[in-house]
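Next up, a chain.

===
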Amino acid sequence: MSLLVVGLSHRSAPVSVLERAALHADAQIKLLQDTVAAEPATEAAVLATCNRIELYADVDKFHAGVAELSTLLAQHSGVGLEELTPYLYVHYEDRAVHHLFSVACGLDSMVVGEGQVLGQIKDSLAKAQDLHSAGRLLNDLFQQALRVGKRAHSETGIDRAGQSLVTFGLEQLSFGTPVDDWARGKKALVIGAGSMSSLAAATLARAGVAEIVVANRTSDRAERLAQILTESGDTDVPARAVPMESVPAELTRADLAVSCTGATGLVLTADAVAAAVGGRVPEGAVAGRTAVGDGVREELPPTSVGTDEGCPLDLSVAQSGFSVMGEAAVAGMDAATLEQHAAWVTGGAVDRREAARRSPEADAELITALAATAAAIGRIPERRRPEPAVEAVRPEPVLFLLDLAMPRDIDAAAHRLAGVRLVDIESLAEASADAPMAADVDQVRRIVSDEVAAFGAAQRAAHITPTVVALRTMAADVVANEIARLEGRLPELDDKHRSEITQTVKRVVDKLLHAPTVRVKQLAAEPGGAGYADALRTLFDLDQETVASVSRAGDSTEKNAGPA
C-alpha cells in the first residue's frame, strides 16, 4: 500500500487561502484526470468540502508523489505553489488512513462530531468511480471510511458533541438563545439548493420559521426543494421558489438568509445588503460610525490646540495647520511656561521657582527644539488629554446572514452595516476553536485506531493474495498435466477410476498448500509483512506477469464497484 494524501483545511490554512483554493465541480474532474495521468499515481480521489481540499492517490514513489500532487493542487486551485505550500499537509500510508477515518468520524471537522462529512466522502468516492480513477485501494479505503464513520456515530455519543455546520452557524447568529426560540416566526431566505442549503432549509423548517423562500440558478432544483419542504409531514412551514434575480427584493422582506452556492464570485454584495436593510434601521445608524466588535463607536473630531480650560499656552494666534511659522507662536515664552504646559498635560505641578533658576540660554535651547519639532511635523507637539470615546448603541439586527459557502457568497463588509449580523466560515472557525470536546471523542479515537490497524492488516493480506492465487493456479496446472500424462500411459482407465485418481491428487496438493498459504497470509498481515509475497514468488518460481494479471483483474472489479 502506497497511499498518499496532500491537502489543506481549516486547521492548516486561513479562510482567505481556502476561498481562493476552492475547486468547483469541473476543476475537481480535471484534477482527477490529470492525477491518474501523472507518472507516480495509479488511483486518485478528491475530497472537497467548504473547509478542506484533499487529494488522495496511490503512488509508487513518495517524494515524487508529494511533489506531483502538490503541483497539481496548485495548478487547479489557481493559488501559486510557493504560496500554497506552507499550508499543505501530507499523510502517507497508515497515517493517511488514520486521517481519512478521523475525517469520516467528524474528529477533524470544524464542528467536532458533525455527520455531514459522511455524505461528502460518499460523493467523492462516487465521482472517482464515475471517472474510473478509483481502484482497489481507494475503493477499499473510502468504503471502509464510511463504515467507520457510521460505527462511530452509532456506538458512541459523538453526536452529542457535534452538530451540523448549519446548526452551529444558527447558534452563533442567535447569541446563545435556543435556535428554535430565536428562529420561530422569522421569514427565511435560502440561497442555493444543494446539500448544505437543503439541510439549512430543513433545519429552519423544524425550528418553526414563518416562511422559507428558496432561490437557485436552476429553477427546477429550487422548486423541487420548496415542494419537499411544503409536502413534508414533519412541519407545516410554507415554502416557495424564486429565481436568483428576485433575491434583492426577497432580501428586503427576510429576517434571515442562508447562502451556500457554488458561485465563484459574490452572491450578495455589501451594497445589496445595505439596500435591503435601508428602511429597517434608524436613520443615520450606518453613517458616521466605526465598527468595533459587536458595537459601533463615534468617530472623534480632529484634535485642536489651545482650547482646553486651564491650558497655559495661548496658541490662538497660530492658524490651523501652521507649519514652519509655528516658531512665532512660541517666540518669547520662557522655559518655565513651556514646562508648566507639560505639567498640565501630565496632571502634575511645576515649581516655578525651580524653573526660574534656568538661564536664558536654556530657555532659548528649549524653544529652538520646540520650533524645530513644529517645523518637522507641521504643528505644536501638544499632548492633549484624550476625549473619552462616545459609545453608540448598535441597532438590534434586523437581518441575520449565514454564509456557508467556500469561497464566500456574502461580502464580508456586510458585517459592518448597522442592523446586520453576519456569520461566515471564518467566524465559525474562530468560534469552533473554543467549542468544548465531548467525553465520547476519546472513545471515537480508539475506534479509529483499531480500524486503522485492521485496515492495514487487511491491505497487507490482500497484497499477498494475487501471489497465493498464482501459486494455486500453478499447482492446478501441474495436476492437470500429470493427469494428462497418466491417461496417455494408461488409456484403458475407465471414467470412474480416472475421476478418483484426479480427485486424490488434487486433495494431496490442496492439503500440502493449505497450511503454508494460510500462514503466509497471517504473516503478511502483520507490520513489515510485505516481503512474504516476494519470498513466495521466489521459492515457487512464480511468473511475475501471472501475479500481475491477477492484481489487474481485481482492480478492474473494484473500479466498477459502487459506494457502500
Notes: The domain at 2-162 is CATH 3.30.460.30 (Beta Polymerase; domain 2). The radius of gyration is 37 Å. The longest helix spans residues 440-489. The chain has 23 helices and 13 strands.
